[in-house]
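## retry 2 of 3
previous attempt timed out at serialization; input unchanged, resubmitting
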Amino acid sequence: MSQRHLNKHRPVVGYQKYSMHQRITTLQKAEANDEENEEEFLINDFAGELDDRFPKGASAAVEDRDDHLRIIDNSLRKHSGQGIYERIFGEDTERVPRDVHTNTRWVVVSHDKGDTTPASVLGKEGPVFNYGNFATLAQFRMTWDDFTCLPSKYSAEMGSDREARVKLLQQVTDNGYVDETSGIVRVASDGTRFFVPRYIVWNTYDDDGNYYGQACIFDRDACRPAD
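## retry succeeded, writing output
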């Protein structure tokens, strides 16, 4: 995936507004058949609806990174008996969230449950990345602001890579947790494809047991250029 391709998908608010414009127009004509009021309806109500439903606009970024990390860490520990901290730093180590946020070797990344941004809800683009630590941003060569506006499906190229991703996420959805050694291929913002030989993907749940999204961890040092 090239930088040009990524840029095409970054302004998700704008192009989703067009999609929503079409839906509102069709619905209003069918129900009210009142074309005179259509333009006024769109101007007065559409922006307000977007603001109410998506207060952060295109971004899915979590507001409290420490609490988010706590949630996805607890979920991984419940699934596997070992959380993020133990996998990165080993057992019996005293660490704080910042140690994960700023880690440049271990990628810790997550996406939302597909209900946070116009891209997810209106554009049916699926989940959007809502967190990535320093290692994630370095591996995908993106800034925090750009990364947390990106539907996660664009981390894999069209074709077999994306088909494999769909199968993987369905497997995680069904089983809750996957510790896989068969490898996956992902792509950075500049089009660089890389192979991840081992990765862990898991479903995440909030403190009330509600589905929260999915997360992944892998070791950057083990990655290599994809064929």
